[in-house]
Design goal:
Shape of chain A: elongated
Number of helices of chain A: 2
Oligomer: homotetramer
Number of strands of chain A: 7
Strand content of chain A: 25-35%
Strand order of the largest sheet of chain A: 1-3-4-5-2
Radius of gyration of chain A: 16 Å
Helix content of chain A: 10-25%
Largest sheet of chain A: 5 strands, antiparallel
Chain lengths: 150, 150, 150, 150
């Protein structure tokens, strides 16, 4: 049975554009923020480590985003209270794809999906994000993400 | 023969994130800015009309974005000089899909596509973006966009 | 006795920069968002009117920002839970100055102030923001804002 | 005699808000971008070092922003071509204050100033931005900035 993580997000003024509606890039940012809230709910604190700049509890894990796609279904406006639903659409050996739906009341505002790859630095001394290699998602992280697999 | 419109974009500091690279949402914003630059190059001034808030010369035309997708191929960093290439991938009767490629030197940073629908207000007195209906792309606009069809 | 309005704000990933801390512009945006939350708490719905694009319940009122200043006291990082305090520092006949303080635990992150002027359009038919003239703040709005005057 | 550094900046769509004008935070971001362009013009490449995340050629120098202030004088709109003028208002022993003016044709859009402090990490092994101490601006950097002192 599909289980979604959900959180709420109010449209802020600076996220609107001169067409009077929320800019498409802000809707995709809401999706990222919902992913981060889901991770926090799993105890996967995505706080940046001061020494590693990783966005995962274990400093050796990085999750660069490799794909994002979004359909914009209805406009949202300043101060709308949006419901952001997120689930795990696919849990690969090295990657995770989140599925997103943003709603305003009964109206679907946007749906999309975003994929990140689990990575480690080639060289632990370097903090260059460029020198990453994909690794298998650790079992404990996989188990937690599995709760939201639909 | 494929003809691309191109423009350059330097990565600004506020567009980077704590991972030390440009945030994915900024890459998609660069794509939108490349579309707007392409439209300007065609004499299709996308300036907002003070009375209609349309983003097209004719106040009765609106182009809400209905889909965006993007693959993030390599990280870009502060002050990188990016080349943004854009062409028209599909020119439907009522919609246009732009294809995008962002490069840093010989490295592909991101590729994607974004689709907008040609719309008109149901009621010319209203400036509500919500009350739009899709219409056929006018012949003169279609002819101009056709130059970048690949 | 000084009365502050307060709200909480978590630092989102896209608001950080490559220095690993929240970008200064995001701190000033948090201040604007705290103002809007204060206004909502007063029943001054700042929703945009579809016909007027005013950010005030009465369509004839506009509040363009005329000044902002901010001291950045300590860095804030991704996922920090910030407390945003806002009060009314000065209630002029035509303008309001909000005073802001952002804290992370017992650490002051930023303090500042922002001033807006109460305006009306010269011509009600036009929705051009440029053609505004300053007017006296209406008595009922003044009375509400007065609650947060320090 | 006052010498200003100048650069041009077009207002992008995502930088406008539902009031139909450029958001105040974008004007302050334009000022930061003009500072970075001034620094580049001096050969002070502000590229982030992969190992230090400093925003200065010498990895041991950091320039956290400590104050920003801005007066918003006239609205700017989508696709306006703005001229950004920046000079050095004050060159202290440890800090630099840039003075900014943004113009659209003959109209002043915004004026302001922003102050940064020259810093070094207390501990070269740490990349924590929080553990910085102010240091004297190096002579060669001071000499270069001095060209724009007004």
């Amino acid at each position: 049975m599909a289980v979604n993580f959900s959180c709420q997000r109010r449209v802020e003024f600076c996220e609107t554009d001169a067409a009077g509606i929320v800019h498409f890039s802000s809707l995709m940012i809401y999706m990222e923020q919902a992913e981060h809230a889901l991770l926090r709910s799993l105890g996967l604190s995505v706080a940046l480590s001061a020494t590693s700049h990783s966005i995962w509890p274990d400093p050796v894990l990085h999750w660069p985003r490799v794909r994002a796609e979004c359909d914009f279904l209805s406009p949202a406006r300043f101060e709308d209270n949006l419901l952001c639903l997120v689930s795990v659409a696919r849990l690969g050996s090295k990657s995770v794809t989140f599925r997103h739906l943003i709603q305003s009341g009964r109206t679907d505002i946007a749906s999309g999906s975003m994929t990140s790859v689990c990575c480690q630095r080639k060289n632990a001394q370097s903090d260059s994000v460029g020198s990453l290699i994909g690794i298998e998602i650790p079992a404990d992280v996989r188990e937690k993400l599995n709760q939201f697999l639909t």
